[in-house]
Amino acid sequence: MRDQSQGAPMCVKGLWKRAGARLVLWFSLSLAIVAQADTLKDTMRVAPGDQKVLNFPEAVAKVATSDPTVAALTVTGSEELLLTAKAEGSAVISVWLRGKAKPLRSTVVVATTLGSSLPFGTQVQTDIRVLEVSRSELNQLGMSYSNVFNDGQSAVGIAPPGTGFQVPGVVPAPLSSDGFNLFGFGPNSVLAINALEAGGFAYTLAEPSLTSLSGQSASFLSGGEFPVPIRSDNTGVQIEFKEFGIGLSLTPTVIDAGQIILKVAPEVSELDFSAGVETGGVAVPGLRVRRAETTVSLAPGETFIISGLVSRNTINNSDRLPGIGNIPLLGAFFRSSRIEKSDKELVMVVTPHLVTPQQSTEPPVTLPGAGYHSSSTGWLDMATESRRGSQPIRHGLSW
Fold first, then answer.
1. Domains of the chain in sequence order
2. Which has fewest Cβ within 10 Å: 194, 295, 305, 339?
3. How far is the C-alpha of 121 from the C-alpha of 212, rounded, in Å?
4. Average pLDDT of the chain?
């Protein structure tokens, strides 16, 4: 009997242990189910055309979206929704659960490229350097870049007209032009351009820096606008302005932290009065336009150099000895004429970088020259000190 009385408490103790274990297991499973329930995140990123199933721990009573053309919601079950990304953009979705007065909200961002290692809204700063290279002067000195230097990181060379060039892994398709193509990747190609400028064979026309979001376009124009009169039956003559000069449009797209797809479209235009027309007594010049468009894949900090925008000018120069050079027949011995051809190549050096805005907690950026005072500021400081002191400060020979 004593053994049975001792076994009863042990049996009760075992039941309590098993019940406690079942309770812990049930509680853990409940937490797991709740964790698996896809409650709305603050921000969800999806690609256009994708669909995502949203699960909730309770029944869904009502749904709403701020822009149905970007993100649409479909009720597929009492506790389940189907999110469909229709077009690029952003929309706020709201979900009311049964018995809850406050809705769950999330911002849905629909974008084509979604970098896994980069935050949304990555900014790309593209440094552009526009130079003009004198090909005629290089030819006069017998200089040639027909050899291609390739160290695995850069390539510099000239492709004959119409043949184009191709760099495996960077430029998948041949890039052709009406002239030669000076191209390069890496620091060595930039050194070659710097050497041309130091030798007087090239000079910088513009050096802008453009910053845009990934997938957004940026452009610049270094030139001007000229008026073009346009006749209208209702309002008479109207004036429209057209742009000319050196322009560049680019669209960077960040694939990941080590790859940027860069679409570049340079254009050079100049006034051409020989191809102009006259309307209403006003001479309207034409435009000589040179443009190109290409797409390359670069790592942040790598450089792509593109040219092929050639400008050819022919000048007929005549030198003669005054007086005797105008005499028929005899004057031919005292005058000379020559034809000069000037070929200029427009070169664009493009380097993209990934950038982030400065945080408010970071120290302010010190601008170049901020630690120096100008002469006018120093003069004002001295004048202020002279008013404070007893002795005035004299400038010049006399008062």
1. 39-112 (2.60.40.1080), 123-355 (no CATH)
2. 339
3. 9
4. 70
CA gap 280, 300 in Å, rounded: 53
Residues 103 and 61 sit within 8 Å (Cβ to Cβ): no
Q: How far is CA 87 from CA 121, 143, 171, in A?
A: 17, 53, 30
Q: How far is 52 from 106, CA to CA, in rounded Å?
A: 14
Those residues with Cβ within 8 angstroms of residue 86's Cβ, 6 or more apart along the chain or in another chain = 48, 49, 68, 69, 70, 71, 72, 110
Report yes or no on whether pTM surpasses 0.85.
Answer: no
pLDDT score for 269: 85
Residue-wise pLDDT for 94-108, tens only, equals 899 888 888 888 888
| CA distances to 243, 248, 284 from 240, in Å | 10, 22, 12
Tokens of 10: 């042990």
Q: Do 317 and 340 form a contact (C-beta atoms < 8 A)?
A: yes
Cβ neighbors of 184 (< 8 A, separation 6 or more) are 154, 155, 156, 190, 192, 193, 303, 304, 305
In whole angstroms, give the CA distance from residue 279 to residue 187.
51
Candidates 122, 154, 173, 194; CA nearest to 304 is 154
Amino acid at 194: N
The predicted-structure confidence for 153-185, as pLDDT tens digits, reads as follows 444 444 444 444 444 444 444 443 333 344 444
Residue type, 134: S
